[in-house]
Amino acid sequence: MCGRARCTLNPNQVAAACGFTGDGGRQTSVRTVDINGFRPSYNVSPGRYVPVAMVRRINSGVDGEKEVEPVVHCMKWGLVPSFTKKTEKPDHYRMFNARSESIKEKASFRRLIPANRCLVAVEGFYEWKKDGSKKQPYYIHFKDDMPLVFAALYDSWSNSDGEVLYTFTILTTRCSTSLEWLHDRMPVILGSKSSIDLWLDNSNQKFESLLVPYEGPDLVWHPVTAEVGKTSFDGPECIIEIQLKSTANHPISKFFTKKCDGGIKPEKEHSKETDTVVDIKKKDEPFNKQLTKAKNDEKSESSDVKKEETNESEDVKKEALTFEAEEFYASEKGKQSAGVKREFDEVKKFSHVDSLPVKKEKVAKKEDGQLSLLSYFGKK
């Protein structure tokens, strides 16, 4: 959840959004750290630098007390815990989000709660709606385009060369009722100055009331191009609303037909959903046409149609047997020329066929004038 966001805010805008400056802040500017690493982007992904608002406590020199100093520190998105091996390659996708329900249970997050809380300000974030194998991205933001402020935790890690890397993770919670159709999780949005101050107050351990879905009606969304899925796609085009294709006029995108006996598809098939007959390409025209008619006739409740179906089915079977007999005769004729004899029992299965379409001069007749299957085969 929340793996992409838009952040084109400069450090002063981040400080104002988090209440460090402006009407709700104590000063006109804040200190910045490593801000040169930040590049404004409409499509920020884990591993990129983002300006993070935090407070540092420094010694004031008066009775050992510490003074709070607001800071905008540029950090990489995707937490790398300080106990990570120095020789290990950082994986910023492992912990770019942290489930707020379990931050007190996991060591990677639990030790950060007392002193490493921070804020992430962005103009909006992206979420994908799954639709089968496809995913449609949506851009989620405030209606007045004011920045969203997320609750976050940060940490520092040193590699084998002694370089220090600051990273952060965004807290998530269950989704709001208005966005349940899209996803089951969303970032923890701090929607007021009081909630921001409470989260940054490290001395206050009763912050659970902040880790809830944002239910404000000013949170809106719209579909955007699927190109947002590419990290290289970065520009104003990322947040432009698109029109989704309507499927209302096409409730059934494809029709599927079961194979009939023999592996031949029917010429037509009835669709219950649309009460129409769907044409299907014919593979074997003569046989297929009659077989389809027999199948459709089976669905009729009329007794007359059932009788016709029986006749049609018998004709189809007879035609199939006739075709098979012709094929058999052709093969036997070739065998006869090579001196191969065929026994009567081997062709007995064709004895119920009334007649066979063969050349008259090569077929002997019975006394009653009808053709005999035995006439197809040579005598000893």
Automatic annotation (TrEMBL):
Domain of life from the UniProt record? Eukaryota
Q: Which family does it belong to?
A: Belongs to the SOS response-associated peptidase family.
Q: Where is the composition biased (Basic and acidic residues)?
A: 294-318
Q: Where is this region: Disordered?
A: 288-318
Signal sequence segment: none
Keywords attached to this Swiss-Prot or TrEMBL record, sorted alphabetically, are: Covalent protein-DNA linkage, DNA damage, DNA-binding, Hydrolase, Lyase, Protease
Family annotation (Pfam families): SRAP
The protein's name is Embryonic stem cell-specific 5-hydroxymethylcytosine-binding protein
Per its UniProt record, what PROSITE patterns does this chain match? PROKAR_LIPOPROTEIN
Q: Which organism is it from?
A: Carex littledalei
Q: Which GO molecular function annotations are given, in alphabetical order?
A: lyase activity; peptidase activity; single-stranded DNA binding
GO biological process terms, semicolon-separated: protein-DNA covalent cross-linking repair; proteolysis
